[in-house]
Structures are given as structure tokens and as C-alpha cells.
Amino acid sequence: MRSISLLGTAITAFAGFALMGSFASAALFKLPFSGPPKNADAAVQSLVNNDIFSLYPEFRYTTFPGIGLDVKNDTQGRASFIDIPKGRETTRRTIDIMYKDKEKVPFIANFKKYAQDGLTVEDSKLVHMRFSANRQRCEFYEIVNHDHTRVQVTVQYSAFSSTGKLSVKDISNGVTGTRNGEIYLAH
Predict the structure, then answer these.
(1) Is residue 140 part of a domain?
(2) Nearest to 97 by CA among 69, 72, 115, 114
(3) pTM, whole model, 2 decimals?
(4) Has residue 83 been placed in a domain?
């Protein structure tokens, strides 16, 4: 299993690259996600990292080695749909990506994981994103899960660095927590 940054996919597709990956830059496409820090609180960590995507330490979607991706672009050349086909030991997954007007960064990504038949949705996660005024950093995520539970994530970056604090709140059951330290940016 490997993770690829969704922002990189969107920006790379916009720039006309054939590579797939991160919500960041083409350089991130070849960097596998090494996993969460060993000391992260499991309850909070499970709210932002799952088998479909991870938000910490970077927003990346999950794909698998040897599985090709099919990316569709909108009329402005932005990645608008990613189809991750079924593999030998995996099921099909899709990502619908929506943008506001002519923005280059997405504001909604709808992740779907299908059952073995490839048609029935087994799990889904709708991710709303809000970027800073300069549109370089995502400051807020809201995740709506398949069972309609909601998780809100706020990112506060330290000035002039990639360190900061990720605050997580499960609206549905009250679990809250923070992750401090390195937050990998997509740029």
C-alpha cells in the first residue's frame, strides 16, 4: 500500500503532468507515506488517518503498487475524478474532486471505497477543505463519514515553518486531541 498526495494530483494535472499523486508537487508523487509517528494517540490518529486517506502528517490518498490510476480532468485541466481500479487483493476506489469557480485548489473531495462487486459503496468519506487567503495552506478540513459522523480538523501553522498544531474534534462522539510537530505541506 502506498499513499499519494491529493493536492499534488490536482495541481499536477492542472500543470499537464502525466504523473499522479499528492495535493502538492510532482516531487511528492514518488515519496511513499511512512506512516504516523509511533507516539501518536491512537483514537485521535484514527480520526485523521484511515485506509482511504491520511491527513497527518500530510493529506495523501491510498493506492497500491502496480495499480494504475485513471485521472479525468475538468475543462480547466484540473483533476476532477480519480479511479483506482480493483487489484488482486484490493477493491476499487474513486475520488471526485470539486473546485470553486476557477480556483486551482479543491474545496471538496469525495472518497469512495467499493465492495468486491465494484459497484456497491462499502465506505465513503466526504472531505471539505478551506485554504488560507493566500491559498497555499489548508487550514480546515471537515470529514463526513459513510455513517454520517463528522470530524473537524483545524491546522495552525507556525510562522515561516512547516511546524504547527493539528487540532482534531470528532463532532459525533466528543473525541478531541492535537498533533504537534512537523506538518508536511503540499507546495
Answers:
(1) no
(2) 72
(3) 0.75
(4) yes
